User: What shape does this take?
Amino acid sequence: MSLLIKTHLKLARISIKENRTRSFLTCLGIAIGVASIILILSLMGSISRLVSNQVKNIGADLIVVRPSTNKDAMSGIISELTASSSYQKSNLAVSDVPVIKEIEKVSAVAPIALSTRSVSTEKNTMDSVTVLGTTTDFNVIQPLAMRYGSFIDDTNENKTAVVGHTLALQLFNTTNPVGKTLTMMGNRFIVMGVLSEVEESINFNNVDFDNTIIVNIKTLEQMGVSEQIQQINIKAANTDSLAEVSNNIRERLKEKKSGDVNFTVLYGDEITHPAGSLFTIVSGMLTLVAAISLVVGGIGVMNIMLVSVAERTHEIGIRKAVGASGQNILLQFLFEALILSLLGGLMGLILGYILAFFVSIVTPFAPYISLQILLVTFGTALLVGVIFGIYPALKAASKNPIESLKHYR
Amino acid sequence: MNDTVIELKGLTKRYGYGDTESFALKDFDLTVKRGEFVMIMGPSGCGKTTLLNIIGLLDRATSGEYKLNGENAANISAARQARLRAKKIGFIFQNYNLIEDLPVIENVALPLVYTRTPRVARLKQASQALAHFHLQEREYYLPSQLSGGQQQRVAIARAIVADPEIILADEPTGNLDSRSSHIVMEELKAIHEEGNTIIMVTHNPALTTYATRVINMLDGQIDTDIKTVADHKLPKPVEARSKKRKGRSR
Assistant: This one.
């Protein structure tokens, strides 16, 4: 068998070499499909790597509670697109925080309550500024580097706020506005700290810290503002009991919500999975486009193989007459199709990473290479080769030798 | 030793049904012994080529028996027929039927690809076969660079390279001038004298002098069947070759 495979490979090489332009164009069709898949995988991989690096930096003892929607994925995406979900109330509440805090082996709990407010200072007024309401535990779980001043605390009686690096400049025209006041929701807040510039804008909190005001959630409660909780971050006392602790959290919250499990408890790698449904939509669409171009490329392979089979009908007749079985002929043409699509896959791999490199120039997403991506690429290329090569190969194999011998180019 | 190479009994090949029904072969019986050089003649459409295609396992009879070397060859799978074609049958065609893209030596080695002979052994055997026909200097020529007579000799080399039981030739001199045609016939005569069995279809009555048996066909049946050489005088296979053959059949 290996003997014949070698022969088939050699024949395929000869045939592809003889029709160089044609083969190159066919490969290009596959290459474009594969390149777009590579680009998408590289982007997704690089985004999850950014987030997972962050989780690693924070520590492996992180548990996250997120509200879950009861809708299936598709309608979730639709409602996200139509923006109706922004009016939907999150299932998590500030009152969940003390419940979790009581659980054994939980060392810190911080809610993430995001809202958008108008903010004004002496100098500027800005609409739609992201305001993050949380507790002092936030800094225990994920210490944020402070450029000036300090993080929010519980002892201060005044209403205090911490401002992101970029936002500080925009609101106060200075990098150090500590001690100055800003007004939002009709209340004056004293700026007690400014965050250092955050290098990576993507994180598991879904917060762009450079453009955020952080306030104590207690202050917000005192003001009578009811906030929605998007996420609860929890730090476990040690890394060994993550499963146990997260299970306890699930049970306790379920109890508190009288049996409703409308939330998910995540830890470890689960957190890093990009959760934003926009991300899902975009990558889903891109994958679809890539799949379509792969199918088009595959049709190209099939087309060229059909031409090749027709051109070589006489040769097929001769081969059959001297003892080739249908299977021999089938394999010969299938190998040719496979090699065409594998070459296309290889070209696509290179093309994809060139594109990923260009993307990395304008975005923070570095090209991401992994064995998985390589396997997916070659798997896909092989699959396309088999799917679109089998019909021409079958056609070649089923040719009648007597008719084929009469056939001339 | 079994001297019968081919045994056909009641072989019928029918085309069409009802009013369009016609018979290329009708109840055809034929026995060919080892070492015979059978020449089949007859008018166009008498079933000569159909007969050759059926013997060569390129076509199947509608009904009837076909034994090749004592083995049933009629009702076996296409894959097994292909294997038999590779090992036991050598074809020579009127239009040579060489693969244009492959050098001469690869063309000759082609049947050995399908008997799974390793590449080096394949090329060595092909080279020997070419030397046999004084073409060893043309091994890496493409078929289109050779004359018709040379191409046909390449085709004969390809037909004998796998040491088949029987060589089938369909008008091998049909495309050649008389000089080339003479050379080709001399080559066929030479391989016949080495003990090969040949069945050849021709239109040219002058060539019957080479044959040991001449069959005239008419309307799918044997019209006349004349043996010019007695059975016991047929050339015996060369010792080495018969040994090789026995070894393989075991």
About this structure: The interface with chain B takes residues 3-4, 6-7, 14, 18, 314-315, 317-328, 401-402, 405 of chain A (CB under 8 Å).
